[in-house]
Amino acid sequence: MHRNWCVAGLAALLAVGTGLLAAGQKGFAASAQQKPATAEVKIDNFSFSPNELTIPAGTTVTWTNRDDIPHTVVSSDDPKAFKSKVMDTDEKFSFTFSKPGTYPYFCSVHPKMVGKVVVQ
Amino acid sequence: MFNQGFLGTAAPFIADLILLLEIAMGVGLLAGAWLAHKKRFRQHAWCQSGVVLLNLAVITLVMLPSFHARALPKIPVRLGKAYYALATAHGIFGIIAEIAALYILMSAGTHLLPEKARIIRYKSWMRGTLALWWVALLLGITTYARWYAPHFF
């Protein structure tokens, strides 16, 4: 009789533990879904850093101009996938890449400045 | 429009081309003034008229759209920044010089203006406009350097 009670207690503990673990995983997954993926590109000294960025689809990339000169971020594709306005120092531009592919871009004020976003 | 330039700076091709063209036009105007000094007035008229009309085309087709896209949205808030202040000063001096030059051109070379509106003291007007033109040109060169060759600063 005593042994049966022990088995039942262990089974109950296991069930509660499994339930808590599952709930925790769900919660973690939910919070991961709520927080979209982001990536940063810094514009400094007439270059994009990192120059080439590889990200999963759905990631929002934010470019920040840390230079003392106005810059833009313009897609090289035709039609243009994205195009920022002229960004002053510390101004930002964001774009969400929803489709996989390679997205080359440049600064229309200084065309020597080029970069690439690879969406997987 | 967005091809790389050829002067070794960060400028696009069109900016390099316009810079050299504007310097050539400024020198052309000085050459035209020299022609007037040598009493070769017909060549003087052709030279100055050509430069003024070519500059009008450059302003209309390249400079105004570029200023409208890059500098105008930041004015007057960012006028404290050198690159916007220089571009604005260059634009103001350049427009005044071009309008003055067109006025001289219409007054001296056509009958479009009524008698009362025509210039009497040509020399003063022409010399003043030439000086203004060169101020605008020097501001333009400085603007180019600030936007595309920041190591100069």
Describe this entry's structure for a reader.
The complex is a heterodimer of chains A (120) and B (153). Chain A has 120 residues and is α/β, with parallel strands linked by helices. Chain A folds into two domains: 1-35; 38-119, Cupredoxins -  blue copper proteins (Immunoglobulin-like, Sandwich). Chain A has one helix and eight strands, in the order H-E-E-E-E-E-E-E-E. In chain A, strand 7 and strand 8 (114-119) form a beta hairpin. Chain A is globular, with a radius of gyration of 24 Å. The termini of chain A are far apart. Mean pLDDT of chain A is 82; it is low at 20-24 and 26-32. By secondary structure, chain B is an all-alpha fold. Chain B has one domain. Helix content of chain B is 72%, strand content 0%. Chain B contains four helices and no strands. Chain B has helices at 13-37, 41-70, 82-109, 122-148. The model of chain B has no long low-confidence stretch (mean pLDDT 93). The interface between A and B is medium-sized, with 15 and 18 residues.
